[in-house]
Please model this.
Amino acid sequence: MSEGKLVLVSLVTLIMSIVARSARFKNFVSSVFSEKVFDKDIIINSPTLKLTSHIPLQFESGNVSTFKNLKQTLRAFEEYGIRARDQNNILISRANGFDAIVHNQLRVIGYFDKLDGVQDGINRNTIVTKKIIKTILSNLTFANYFDSSISNDWKLEIKRLCDSFGYRIDEQSKVLVQIPDHKVTCMFNNPLSRVIESISHLCKDYSENFEIERKPIIKFIKGQLDKLDVSSNDLLVVPGSGAGFLSWQLATSYQNVKVDSIELSGLMYLTNLFAMNYKEKDIRIYPFVQFYSGQKNLENQLLEMHVPLERVKKPENLNPLWGDFTVYMPVSNKHDKIFVITAYFIDTAEDLIEYVKAIEALKKYCKKVHWINVGPLKYGTQPKIQLNGEELARLRKIRGWTDTFESYSNDCEGGLNGYLTDTNSLYQGYYGHLQFHSYI
Ligand SMILES: *[C@@H]1O[C@H](CO)[C@@H](O)[C@H](O)[C@H]1NC(C)=O
Ligand SMILES: *[C@@H]1O[C@H](CO)[C@@H](O)[C@H](O)[C@H]1NC(C)=O
Model:
């Protein structure tokens, strides 16, 4: 290298090092890269929604929910309105494709009015998805934005997030204010069906209409728990807690016992938090609005369900956690008994053995683990194994479990249970239950 070049290189290096140290440059860099660097590294504590860089005790071995997960989940809720409308519009345009005579007949029989009615129902459901977004955003803001221990970078992230959903943080009154003319754009490839499932779960979990589906589950579980002495030194664990009715019911019924519920899906988890945190008027949901098949008439399709959330408050002893059950650990290892309650859960496993091992791992935190299960064996997507009831019973036995109870309810004269089942429909799905109570 010639002397001239060497001088030039050193000079450039010197200048770069000065520039790199300047605060303004650093801010510039962080503003350009922050979105990428930050959001997946900011961990969300649940249920407080407090931001942190420390992995919560319950999930120390990994896979925790992050700011990025929260963002994407809220985005999926926001996109519900557009995606649902697009789906309905496809039906409108297909019907528009008929010749003039048929088109007119479709109009006369009310087919187009029906599709308009569906759009109306979608619009009303959108009121709920908007409420979910606003409630979660305001809980997030309130938990962090006014807290001096939270860094300004993170506060900026919150501010941007609110802004991207059309809300401004009013620093004086500490509330979110809607920005007029907020436009929604679809960015992610969010499956509409998952969002519909989540908001329908507000009905399944908390509305009178689905009491019939909740009752047999609660009855069986309480029946098993009440055979034993559930005491304050015990812990109830509810994996796959969904929108939260079971963990909420159990925490309400056994107030001296801590209940940890764990949910992996952001959509379900935020729906659960919404149910606990939303304090305004009741909400109304149209769970079957886009069920075009099997309907007798539009009224049935537009069935409105009333969800009285004002009575759903988070009991002190309930700790709803957002994370992966297979890496969950209780905070204390001095429990007497841990009760793991699985309802409509085990067949969701890609790897059932992993679930069983995760339940057995709780033995380190107590003297005895009780496993109370109720639900079908309808294995989900790409399961590694699909055990039948007897195989599962033998597996429990050879792994050291002792059954105190096992039964099947699969009698169509009354032993079956719906799952978001539309009882007016010409197609109705029902499940049989495998119920067992086992301990190790
Ligand atoms: C966390 O779990 C989800 C769902 O099982 C999975 O898709 C994701 O890859 C996991 N993340 C990490 C960091 O293990
Ligand atoms: C969450 O936000 C709602 C709506 O602003 C509020 O009513 C509720 O008290 C908040 N809950 C928590 C736990 O912050």
The chain has three domains: 1-28, 67-178, 192-439. Residues 23-37 have pLDDT under 50 and may be disordered. The first helix runs from residue 3 to 21.
